Amino acid sequence: MMTQRVNGTVAVFGEALVDDFGDRQVIGGAPFNVARHLAALGQDALMLTRVGLDENGARMRAEFERFGLPMAGLQVDAALPTGRVSVERHSDGGHRFTILPHQAYDAIEAEPAMTAMTAAAPATLYFGTLAQREPASRDALARLLGATDACRYLDLNVREGQVTERCVFASLHAADIVKVNEEELQDLFGWYTHMRLPTDDMACADVRHACATLLRVFNLTGLIVTLGPRGAVYLGADGAYHSTPAPGVPVQLADTVGAGDAFSAVFLLGRARGWALDATLARANEFAGAVCGIVGAVPDDHAFYRPFIDRWEP
């Protein structure tokens, strides 16, 4: 059962795909995970993506319907297949991903995306880097970014062979708020501060100085660093530093797929609802931890969301 929507649409641009675990297939894609979480938590979300005219594409459409996402953002490609990723699961909970090339989400068309976004008038535009690997979707995103004054939230996703430093550089310049994990932060340090700093202590002066350099060089409002079981930190252009520890009650780990997407969804929810930053970070981290307790990135049952909605609604 869905909760009541609130104002402040979040437009989400990027891939909707199937994670193929061999014995099962799970609908995923970081942007689609974020959009589904937002919708289930009661936030208006516009998912801008493209799928194939195939069985997996039909599954995506059904998922749009299940979460109440507007069909205006869903494009269908008669030639290219719905995106697919082969996932190999490791015993430690980690995963190895093989991302297939030339998928429908690589060919998002600008005009229908612009029409849908204009009608929705979003307060926030979420985007990543995977859907920018080919020119069509990259150009469509550039059009969207140039046509809105919405806050731009970049969920950096540095996948080997799928994103170039040039794409990262341009994306950082287009963003207002950037979310990275520790490995991605190390990449940014190496590319743009010429330092390789350990991130085990995010509060140390050298790390905070390097993060401040990134904020200044790319004219960012905020930088979020997720630290897995150690929580997360937010660094602001005004010098603000906020941290949240791991949840007090650990979950039984099922897998870590989609933890970062869960974090982003609740962070964006908190911004839309005007939560205090410390509360937003704590709730985002708690929700990400809960998602690690289920198999896959998004629960099968909307009842999963109810305890969070009940505790977070005013």
Structure characterization notes:
With 314 residues, the chain is of the alpha/beta class. It is 38% helix and 22% strand. The chain contains 10 helices and 13 strands. The chain has helices spanning 30-40, 55-67, 110-120, 135-146, 165-174, 182-192, 205-217, 259-273, 277-291, 306-312, and strands at residues 6-13, 17-20, 25-28, 43-52, 74-77, 83-89, 95-99, 124-127, 151-155, 177-181, 222-226, 232-236, 241-244. The strands form 2 sheets. The chain has a 9-stranded mixed beta sheet, sandwiched between helices. It has a 4-stranded mixed beta sheet with strand order 3-2-6-7. Strand 6 (83-89) and strand 7 form a beta hairpin. Helix 8 packs antiparallel against helix 9. The two termini are 19 Å apart. Mean pLDDT is 92; it is low at 1-6.
SSE diagram, text form:
Layout: E1 6-13, E2 17-20, E3 25-28, H1 30-40, E4 43-52, H2 55-67, E5 74-77, E6 83-89, E7 95-99, H3 110-120, E8 124-127, H4 135-146, E9 151-155, H5 165-174, E10 177-181, H6 182-192, H7 205-217, E11 222-226, E12 232-236, E13 241-244, H8 259-273, H9 277-291, H10 306-312
Helix pairs in contact: 1-8, 3-4, 8-9
- Low-pLDDT runs of 5+ residues are 1-6
Structural class assignment: alpha/beta
Global mean pLDDT? 92
Largest sheet: 9 strands, mixed
- Overall geometry comes to globular
**In which order are the strands of the major sheet placed?**
5-4-1-8-9-10-11-12-13
Helical stretch tally: 10
Q: How big is the Rg?
A: 18 Å
Q: What is the strand tally? A: 13
The helical percent reads 25-40%
Report the sheet-strand fraction: 15-25%
Helix-strand sequence: EEEHEHEEEHEHEHEHHEEEHHH
Terminal CA distance: 19 Å
